[in-house]
Amino acid sequence: MDANFWHQRWERNEIAFHQREVNPLLVKYFDVLSLSKGSRVFLPLCGKTLDIHWLLPNGYRVAGSELSEVAVKQMFSELAIEPKITAIDDIRRHSADNVDIFVGDIFDLSRNVLGRVDAIYDRAALVALPETMRDRYTAHLIEITDRAPQLLISYDYDQSLVDGPPFSVSNEEVNRLYRDSYGLTLLASVEVVGGLKGKCPARENAWLLKRRDM
Q1: Using CA of residue 17, residue 18, residue 24, residue 30, what is the dihedral sign?
Q2: Residues 150 and 119 sit within 8 Å (Cβ to Cβ)
Q3: Which residue among 97, 127, 143, 199 is the one 20 to 30 A from 177 at the CA level?
Q4: pTM of the predicted structure, to 2 decimals
Q5: Cβ(133)–Cβ(177) under 8 Å?
């Protein structure tokens, strides 16, 4: 799966993956991150998620990374905000009060460009990537955020029954990817109503990842 896949999905408005409501697991479990108001939360591969519409009025600053500029323009339009756009090497930073979205390949995003991150909320990134990319992604995420604590949402289902994305990421894989850097707690595992894409049973899992030295 390459960048063209996602560019084409957004350009054709083939965005069934875009949730039309705030993720209930974010609302229920965000407080476990123990963040003060004004903390900066990083959303990798954020699209135009409505979760940002929940974070901002609740007093948090948002940073996001997104491949598609179409998605980012739609997000700012829906927020009724006009961003300032700045080119930083291969990244285009769209900024406004309390919001910084970095448009481009997340692997081109450095810690210096991203800036300080107090926590990560990953609802759409890990599950969007095929298995062959997940080791590279998680290592990069850990590096650019300096192992910031994380609320991670994953799906677990029989991958042979339906194609991703979102891909199935088992509990065993989540532990393998992150256990060297974090202590992991499974906060919840809920059934996906109607099954994944209406085709197979699935569970949506919420994880808390905290630095081992915390």
Answers
A1: positive
A2: yes
A3: 199
A4: 0.92
A5: no
CATH number, domain of 19, equals: 3.40.50.150
Dig out the tokens for 63 from the structure. 């940073």
The tokens of 9 are what? Answer: 């999905």
What whole-number percentage of the chain has pLDDT above 70? 90
Tokens of 6: 């996602």
Radius of gyration of the chain (CA): 16
If you write DSSP's letter for every residue of the chain in order, what string do you get? Answer: --HHHHHHHHHTT--TTS-SS--HHHHHHGGGG-PPTT-EEEEET-TT-THHHHHTTTT-EEEEEES-HHHHHHHHHHHT---EEEEETTEEEEEETTEEEEES-GGG--HHHH---SEEEESSSGGGS-HHHHHHHHHHHHHHHTS--EEEEEEEE-GGGS--SSPP--HHHHHHHHTTTEEEEEEEEEE-TT-BTTTB-EEEEEEEEEETT-
Mean pLDDT (the chain) is 92
The token pair that represents 205 in the structure block: 């899992």
Burial class (CB in 10 A: 0-12, 13-18, 19+), 85: middle
Which of the four pLDDT bands, split at 50, 70 and 90, describes residue 173? very high
Instruction: Please tell me the distance from the alpha carbon of residue 212 to that of residue 208, in angstroms, as a whole number.
Output: 12
Is the pLDDT reported for residue 18 higher than 50? no
Place of tokens 């970095």: 102
Give how many domains the chain has, as a whole number: 1
Q: Quote the domain boundaries for residue 149.
A: 3-211
CA distances from 98 to 62, 72, 203 (A): 6, 15, 33
